[in-house]
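Review form for a predicted model. The reviewer records the input and the model, then writes brief findings.
Reviewer: anonymous (R2)
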Amino acid sequence: MNLPQPDPLVPLITLPNWVKAAAACGFNLAPLLDALGITADLMQLETATARSSDMERLMAVCVQRSRQRHFPLVLGETFAFEYLPELETFLTTSPTLRESARIFDWLRVLLNPHLVMRLIDHGDLACLRLDPAGGRVTTSFQWFVEATFASVLKFGRTLLGGRGDFVRASFQHARPDHADEVARALRLTLAYGQNHNELQIPSCLLDLPLQGAFDSLHQQAEQRVALRLSSRHQGRALSARLAQLLQAQPSLLAGGMGAAARALGQHPRTLQRRLAAEGKGFSRVVDEVRLRLAQAWLADHGQALETISARLGFSDRRSFTRAFQRWTGQTPSAFRGR
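Model under review:
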């Protein structure tokens, strides 16, 4: 199956954070933006985008220019939801860390579609795993991992309020020259050359009641996030909106067209008609999303095939296996064992 290629554009809404981090590292970001042809327009910041490759080059130049401190760590440490206040409210009013982790699906849409962060619970130890969308790893990806980890730790430790902490950070890349600085900044045991990029945390902390819990504000923040996501989707093809919805909420895969239509605010017949007009039926979109999710989840050997099958909305493992063979020519087990 030929899957759609990842969107080559990323939102620029975090640009003020890059400016702040660059200043903290002793250089001015403006000439770098000009050199790359990235337009900094504060009036259009919430809708502005830049090519992913340009942002990767920008990160590389920032790392080179920053002599005193490692730029990605500063970018992560100074990150704030300046133009996304509803996300910060959602975080700070969450009843548990597990609930707050729902934000990662939204961040992929609002901040960077090429970074996929998932919470994986393995008994006594859980992890936040960071992967590139579609397995696309670039030279600068390790720097985006460092920046993301620094930011997640900042917010996670604030929510925990000293009642627990993360225990280890794992990186796929080899140990860099600045590893000692990373260790000091993250304040964790580090491991390099690992199978995944992960932040590990005791599972018991995921459901620890948080002191900032505020149910009514939490719900209002989620509603405002939904409005922001809806406004971003306006003008996009309905099939793309449907695919993004199903990927963000896999539980809808088992509900058929009715459940997806309700989530999109459409009548099922209207959804069917509009998809047909785009030349892309509902079942095809579902298959594409299921394949993307299956490939990502099969890379996690901690998830049983029965669990993946159920999460994808199949009635049983046999149905999942037949579908996966139709899509790829391989069984799920063979794909996992590559």
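Findings: The first helix runs from residue 15 to 24.
Further findings: Strands lie at 9-11, 49-51, 115-122, 125-132, 168-170, 189-191, 197-202.
Recommendation: see findings above.
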